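During the first year of the project, the team set up a workflow for recording each protein of interest as an amino acid sequence followed immediately by a discrete structure-token representation. This format lets reviewers and collaborators read both layers of information side by side without switching files. As required by the reporting guidelines, we include two representative entries from the current panel. The first entry is reproduced here exactly as it appears in our internal archive.
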Amino acid sequence: MDRASEANRRISTISAHLFPPNLQIEEESSLRRSNCRAKGAAPGFKVAILGAAGGIGQPLALLMKINPLVSVLHLYDVVNTPGVTADISHMDTGAVVRGFLGQNQLEDALTGMDLVVIPAGVPRKPGMTRDDLFNINAGIVKTLCEGIAKCCPNAIVNLISNPVNSTVPIAAEVFKKAGTFDPKRVLGVTMLDVVRANTFVAEVLGLDPRDVDVPVVGGHAGVTILPLLSQVKPPCSFNPKEIDYLTDRIQNGGTEVVEAKAGAGSATLSMAYAAVKFADACLRGLRGDAGVVECAFVSSQVTELPFFATKVRLGRAGVEEVYPLGPLNEYERIGLEKAKKELAESIQKGISFIKK
């Protein structure tokens, strides 16, 4: 191969990592971008982040680029993806990064993906509840899930877009319409509630949060977030004042951040951390690791509701087992009834959005 051909090949290779196919620049250039992987890229899974240029999406993309289980990382958004892609692609880790900009490139972003993580949507602002986000984010999730149904129907889908209590049912209904619904592969990410619970409980107990495990069940908004403090590991006990304090803080952790940022955003960094922690669990399940158990909002028969967050075991098929709630104390039983009442309304709102 002569020097000119070799130079063109290398430029084409680098260009393929920075930009998606079909951009105008390709039409104007004599260099065709190679749909190839960087030399030395480790074997692993193909992951797409939809909403990669947003407040959650950017740190989420950064952390996923570090994950050794990711071989190809597709970053999609309706704005600013080229810059985020160029920035993250310079990191010297194994995953190859490609960016996709705008609705016309959604299908390219999704084709062949093993895991799709969706943080897309507008963030919460002071005074805004997760329910206020519904009308905007519901439409976004619907469009993205239609793309998934068409281009990667067997991918595991991690939904972060709020309100999760409604967007997960929306995703399920979209997939049902397309004939691709697999309840094992659609998961609402409630990991941030668990992360907060572990942190806040560890503060009270004087422990390292990494040594604490708090099951958080129900949903992902307000009173639907139910920490099971009677099942904390390591085993411990709390007085009534501590139970009230911890339950309230865990349920309102998002509001705490929104108010602290005073109009400058919502919980983006901790959410990205929690999302990557959950995505990594899904990837380890896909790899075949045993005993991968996390909390998630999934299709469930644990209660009379069609969706509910409990501990689930993750595997090659996605959710391979949904665990029961276990023994609850009186405080938790009362909390469960409150959670189910609000959850039922949120779930129905999501279903009705698609069926209307």
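The second entry, processed by the same pipeline in the following quarter, appears below.
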Amino acid sequence: MAKKRRQDPASEAGAPSYDEAPADPPASDDDAALSSESEDERVAGAPSTAVARAHITSDGKYRNKQRLLLLSSRGVTARYRHLLEDLRTLIPHSKKESKLDHGKNYNGAAGGGYGAAVNAIAEARGCHTVLFLECRKRGQDGYMWLGRTSHANTAFDGDAEGAGGEGGGLGKKRLMIAGGPSVKFHITNVHTMDELKMTGNCMKGSRPVLSFDNSFDEIEHLKLIKHLFVDVFGTPRGHPKSKPFVDRVLGFYYADGKVSWRRAIWVRNYQILEETASTAKEAHTQKKLTGHASSTSLIEIGPRFVLNPIRIFRGSFGGQTLYVNEDFVNPNVIRANEKREKGEKYVRRKGAERKRKQREEELVVPEDPLADVFS
């Protein structure tokens, strides 16, 4: 005789079990009105708010996976070495690499010299952009290279080939494997964080707000440099080593002075400091002056340096020249002119000595008839 299955009192009372999905709450009049309006919009052909919101809101995933290769040449001075360490601290998506030896003979299809070596290292490390610091004349002259490596376009070419294999649209079309563009700067007025000793401070790994003046939207070659600055100094959202908030500003300002050597890009790093009043009286005074109870100010952190663009190349560390700075004067020429001025000063001094001796020799003193009276 079959046993009668015991029923759960909760199921007898009509409570939902865990296997069953809970019923939706009853819709109110406002929800019904909103749903009817959305249905009317879909019928009319207007885009829905859900689709529009999908393009605006972030899903929080790490999608922009571009990486920066940060390295220098062998023979850099302590000042440039400390600057490189400060940049590694400020750029969480950078990868550190040992110094390049200028004594080796680097040759390759990417332009030869340093360019071939940097592109090979970037391809091995999976880096899309590069910041290369080069020193010459025993550390007297510093040059900074910024640009996109050949690895970035190679990866994009692989995606294009995959899409062509599936859809058959692009096929095996090659896309700028030489990389680029790249910019060569002359770096001056370098001051590191330890040297400045500023009071500003920020969280390590925080994402910066990149600030550009109006010149980067008006001058043609600065528009290209702006995109490179965004790729190099802009931290990708969701990077594992970055912090999910913003508390500093990285400013780029183009100083177009009357003197040619002053037409350069000034780079500054500031902390965003928000201060709230400690007392109600201070809060009332602050709100009366600014309209807000809290005040926001910028405090410089460091480092600071000046970049003077020399030449823009189409490829990575070489290729067709897109822009040449006609006002740039090579530091070797400046030092040669200074030495020439010192040499001319020496020649003038020696000429004055010869003239003085010649004048003393030509000067004849007449004999005094009374010179032997008291002898």
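For the second entry, the following points were noted during internal review. Residues 1-5, 7-54, 158-177 have pLDDT under 50 and may be disordered. The CA atoms of residues 276 and 294 lie 4 Å apart. Both points are flagged for discussion at the upcoming steering committee meeting.
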